[in-house]
Design a protein that fits this description.
Blueprint: E1 7-11, E2 20-25, E3 28-35, E4 38-43, E5 57-59, E6 62-64, E7 71-73, E8 79-81, E9 90-91, E10 93-96, E11 99-102, E12 120-124, H1 128-139, E13 145-150, H2 165-168, H3 181-186, E14 189-193, E15 197-201, E16 206-209, E17 214-216, E18 219-222, E19 226-228, E20 241-243, H4 247-258, E21 262-266, H5 270-281, E22 285-290, H6 297-300, H7 302-314, E23 318-321, E24 325-329, E25 335-339, E26 344-347, E27 349-352, E28 356-358, E29 374-376, E30 387-389, E31 394-398, E32 403-405, H8 410-424, E33 436-441, E34 444-450, E35 457-463, E36 468-475, E37 478-485, H9 488-500, H10 506-510, H11 516-521
Parallel strand pairs: 12-13, 12-18, 13-14, 18-30, 20-27, 21-22, 21-27, 22-23, 29-31
Antiparallel strand pairs: 1-11, 2-3, 3-4, 4-9, 5-6, 6-7, 7-8, 10-11, 15-16, 16-17, 19-28, 24-25, 25-26, 31-32, 33-34, 34-37, 35-36, 36-37
């Protein structure tokens, strides 16, 4: 390697142990860090949405991205956990006379499959968990056959973006797939698209497709996600009424929006409010009817929910809260949504966002389903040792966390898919992740870590009404979850404390003088 290819980027004395430093190497933004006395340099853009990693948090060798909680190893550039899927570029480093020198960038390459393995691993579902599992199997060296069956015609894509940048028009359709056809072909990941598994025989280790094909497997991962709940009122299935779950659904809504001036969004959950924000960006008038008097209060509490509502109202969204839909009528372009309070909402099209339920119909006749979910252990293993489950359908049994939980979040599904893949290859590691999700509405991002289905106290740091806060949800003095806006470091700290089960009393969370990151690192 020629000497002219090396560049001085800083002095070694500029680098404190464990501190993130952004430097320039030519035109490249490079993250330089000293870890355990050695200096390392990697690309500064998170492979997920290209957020700057120097604004994240370094925990040992791992940097946590402030945007969406991706974790990457700064000593190797390797991705540690979702939502990032790719590794970081790595720069060779040497120190000469106190100068930190970096060499030409080594671009990340996905590992090549080597060797042979006679086994077939079946993945049912091509969403977050299924795709993450397939990629992890190859990363971990599995050389057998991987078959992924998905009812959608599209390759795995960035589902969270459907209601956000894609719906607003900021993200082009070609940006949505997570990987290219070339990637799956190169990794020998077989995708059977537009096909549906209609039954599974875990004892015989076989799956039957709707077209009559039968697939045999050595191990299987069930990752079928969820399907939208239906609105059972007259006219809800008529023309100009849409549901949003798939990329095809989103394309249909975007097409409808392009020719519309008004939209009605039935339901004020994350889907409805993110859609409201995105359609307002397109210039549409938006009306949102929903039964609760304050949308989101059951998740975030009244104060945060009121703040979000005020932002949407200031953005021009017309709420009809406390009213349910009784009838939908009229053709596309002239829809009428009748509400229980006697009012009528007029729109060119209607989107129904009433939540989802686990997609489990193909598991009828098996003993895999209990109480509307698939129970799994901390290796994501079902009652049948060769069958695993992850994502929206999986109820993770955990005796240390009030018995278990089922979570419907993208990053959770990805991380469960990664964990399941390693377990399928023999890992006995316990699934210890703390749930994480984010929602972006009216130009601001709200993050949530942990899970609090009910609480008796909320402790606040910062000011909710100014859009910069950390809120901790407590039950009987125990921190269960936190929501935040504009406080990424504190959110990361809370996630670490929750994962390590370190107590954090309400007074300390609320006291801005208490360094939560220092607590998490100690």
């Amino acid at each position: 390697m020629g000497e002219s290819n090396w560049q001085k980027v800083c002095r070694e004395s500029d680098l404190a142990e464990g501190a993130l430093r952004l430097v320039k190497a030519g035109e490249d933004d490079v993250l330089v860090v000293r870890v355990e006395g050695r200096v390392f340099a990697v690309g500064n853009k998170c492979p997920h949405y290209e957020c700057p990693l120097n604004e994240g948090v370094l925990l040992g060798r791992v940097v946590v991205c402030r945007c969406h909680d991706a974790r990457l190893d700064v000593t190797t550039g390797k991705v540690v956990s979702a939502p990032a899927l790719n590794d970081l570029p790595v720069y060779p480093v040497r120190v000469e006379n106190g100068d930190v020198m970096v060499g030409p960038v080594e671009k990340p390459r996905f590992p090549k499959m080597e060797g042979a393995d006679p086994r077939t691993f079946l993945i049912v579902g091509g969403g977050a968990a299924g795709n993450a599992a397939a990629e992890t199997l190859r990363r971990e060296g599995f050389a057998g056959r991987i078959v992924m069956v998905t009812p959608e015609a599209d390759l795995p894509y960035d589902r969270p973006n459907l209601t956000k940048e894609f719906m607003s028009g900021e993200a082009k359709p070609e940006w949505m797939p997570l990987r290219s056809v070339k990637f799956y072909d190169g990794q020998k990941i077989e995708i059977i698209a537009g096909a549906r598994v209609v039954s599974l025989d875990p004892r015989r280790r076989s799956a039957s497709l709707a077209d009559g094909r039968v697939l045999s497997f050595d191990k299987a991962l069930l990752a079928t996600g969820a399907i939208p709940r239906a609105l059972t009122v007259p006219g809800a299935d008529g023309e100009g009424c849409y549901q949003l779950r798939s990329f095809a659904d989103a394309r249909a809504i975007v097409e409808a929006a392009a020719a519309a001036k008004r939209a009605a969004l039935v339901g004020a959950g994350f889907i409805g409010l993110e859609l409201a924000s995105s359609l307002r960006q397109r210039g549409l008038a938006v009306g949102v009817p929903a039964p609760p008097a304050l949308a989101g209060a059951h998740i975030f509490g009244d104060r945060i929910a009121a703040y979000l509502k005020s932002r949407h109202a200031e953005n021009g969204v017309a709420f009809h809260l406390g009213a349910s839909v009784t009838r939908i009528s009229g053709p596309r372009g002239a829809k009428e949504v009748a509400l229980s309070d006697g009012s009528v909402l007029r729109a060119d099209f209607v989107v129904l966002g009433l939540g989802v339920r686990p997609a489990l119909d193909y598991l009828g006749g098996t003993d895999l389903v209990q109480e509307g979910a698939v129970p799994v252990n901390l290796q994501m293993q079902t009652a049948h040792p060769d069958v695993y489950a992850a994502g929206d359908i999986a109820f993770v049994r955990d005796p240390d966390r009030a018995g278990g939980r089922r979570i419907e979040h993208w990053v959770v599904a990805e991380r469960q898919g990664q964990h399941a893949a390693r377990a399928m290859l023999g890992s006995s590691a316990r699934y210890e992740e703390v749930p994480f999700f984010w929602t972006r509405q009216t130009g601001v991002s709200l993050k949530y870590v942990g899970l609090a289905s009910e609480w008796d106290e909320i402790a606040y740091r910062g000011e909710v009404e100014k859009g910069k806060f950390l809120a901790g949800f407590y039950r009987r003095g125990t921190l269960l979850a936190a929501a935040s806006m504009g406080m990424s470091d504190e959110t990361t700290a809370v996630e670490i404390l929750l994962r390590r089960r370190v107590p954090l009393d309400p007074a300390k969370l609320a006291d801005a003088r208490v360094d939560l990151l220092a607590m998490a690192r100690s």
